[in-house]
Amino acid sequence: MTAIAYAETPSVAAPLPGYEVPDGTRQFVLSICKMLADPTRLRIAYYLTNEPELNVTQLCDRVAQSQPAVSHHLAMMRSSGIVDHRRAGRQIFYSIRGETMRQTLAKLFGAEA
Fold first, then answer.
1. Could you count the other beta carbons within 10 Å of the beta carbon of residue 47?
2. Which of 27, 63, 88, 111 is buried most deeply by CB count within 10 Å?
C-alpha cells in the first residue's frame, strides 16, 4: 500500500463580497423603521396594509385618536415614503405607497401579501 501525500495548501482568506448597504438605501430603511417605531404609525400602517385605502376619518376611528393627531402622523409617513394620498372632494384617502412597500409591510405583519 502506498501512502498518498497531500501537500498542505496555505489557507488564503478570500475577500468578502461587499455587503455594505449603500447610503441612500440605509437612510431610506432607517426612516421607515423610525416611522414604524411609533405605535400609532405602526397601527396606521397595519390598517393601510390590509385595506386598499382609507380616509382620515376611518383611520381616526381605528386608532382612536383625533383628526389633527392622525393627520400629523400621516404627513410624517407621507414624507418618509410609506404612504401616498389622493383627494376626492373634501376627503383625502391614504394608501400604502407602491406594491413593494405593501408586500414588505405585509411580511412584517405576518399577513399574505
1. 15
2. 63
